[in-house]
Amino acid sequence: MKAKHLETGRKGEALAVLFLKKQGYRIKEVNYRTPLGEIDVVAVQKGIICFIEVKTRRSLIFGRPEEAVGRVKQRKLTQLAEYYMKERRLLDAPARFDVLSIILDGGGKPHFSLFQGAFEKS
After folding, report:
1. Enclosing domain of residue 102
2. How does pLDDT run across 86-109, given as a tens digit for each residue?
3. What's the number of domains the chain is made of?
4. Residue 23: how many other CB atoms lie within 10 Å
5. Matching Pfam families, A to Z (predicted)?
6. What CATH number is attached to the domain comprising 97?
């Protein structure tokens, strides 16, 4: 079960990068690792640094993918973004948090929902 979950996540992140590029994002980092955890995608769109959480599901049995980004995950992403901004000396740069939801249908075709500014820094 775990291997299938990881495979879905990796496929989703690869699809996410292609989708985001088509939406005008310039990808800076994929799977950016810090001592605190990992940011799925760091990109820039229209001069704004975007920290993007990618959630991929093969069905809706456990709810929509974006619903998995609750308060605890938002706080974690905020900490990770602050780490990135400090490390890159970008503390004064505009930034936002986006969530990219991907649902893979039975044939593996992706359906994307992009939530720009999905939540505020917490």
Report:
1. 2-119
2. 999 998 999 999 999 999 988 878
3. 1
4. 14
5. UPF0102
6. 3.40.1350.10
